[in-house]
Amino acid sequence: MKHIPVLLNSVLETLDDINEKTIVDATFGAGGYSRAFLERGANVIAFDRDPSVIPIAEAIAKEFPGKFRFVNAPFSRLSDLVETVNAIVFDFGVSSMQIDTPERGFSWRFDAPLDMRMGMGESAAKLIEDLSAAELAQVLRDYGDVKKAIPIARAIKETLPQTTFALRDLIHNPKDIAPVFQALRIAVNDELGEIERALNAVTELLVTNGICACVTFHSLEDRLVKNKFREWTEVKGDPRLPAPSVTPKFKLLKTIKPSEEEIAANPRARSAHLRAVRKA
């Protein structure tokens, strides 16, 4: 299945003129965002912790010599950048490329080892083995909002499934399957911790008028981004005192949701939100 970048046109409109500017594509994936930035004259630094995308990155580097640099590392390593940049763009969550590769173990649609790793680290099967039933139930509640987290966690611990189908078949209510898989994937890859660490690096890396744009797909990601953007765009003070003369570090830009036409062409876009801020 061809990967279709979500909200790409909206991201490009938000960034506006990027010719000869330096853009960080923090979630390279299949390279859709990077290619679009390069075709508009930008210099691109791309991050991705998934080693399977290296051939895609190498092909793009050959196509755009001197304009593209790839870093095979999680986006939490943004803080390793020594130069400042004009924009940083995130497309959070799991990529359709990862979901549609059966042996990666992200999807309950294919029977495969219960892996779910985006990069290095321990697999979902190993995580299940290491956690207690109570800890596993907490993961299911916190990252998947699974209502019957305790009985599902107990069933998983009793069986210790090693494949996606084995895990899927333990979950009696079909509505719980996607949340359970999401919760385990988030825990395996420390996705929320990665987002927090990456966003903490953004303020020092952007030049004046630089833009941070984030595409989120579920409420946990979106809440982290909203809270961080609120922190950057609001000046806190005692309402009984005169307004402080300090200006916010960032200006909040318009939040964008996909159009019905984009959702029809790319159903993965349905839950997406684009939020962006501009550095003052």
- Strand line-up in the sheet with most strands: 3-2-1-4-5-7-6
Average pLDDT confidence is 92
Total helices: the number is 12
Q: Unreliable segments (pLDDT under 50, ≥5 consecutive)?
A: none
| Alpha-beta content class | alpha/beta
Order of helices and strands: HEHEHEEHHHHHHHEHEHE
Major pleated sheet? 7 strands, mixed
The helical percent reads 40-55%
Number of strands: 7
Rg from Cα: 20 Å
What gross morphology would you assign? globular
Our measurement of the CA-to-CA distance between the termini, rounded to an integer number of angstroms, reads 41 Å
Strand content: 5-15%
Any chance you could write out the topology, listing elements then pairs?
Elements: H1 8-15, E1 22-25, H2 32-39, E2 43-47, H3 54-63, E3 68-71, E4 85-91, H4 96-99, H5 124-130, H6 133-144, H7 149-159, H8 164-170, H9 177-189, H10 191-205, E5 206-216, H11 219-233, E6 250-252, H12 260-265, E7 273-279
Parallel strand pairs: 1-2, 1-4, 2-3, 4-5
Antiparallel strand pairs: 5-7, 6-7
Helix pairs in contact: 6-7, 6-9, 10-11
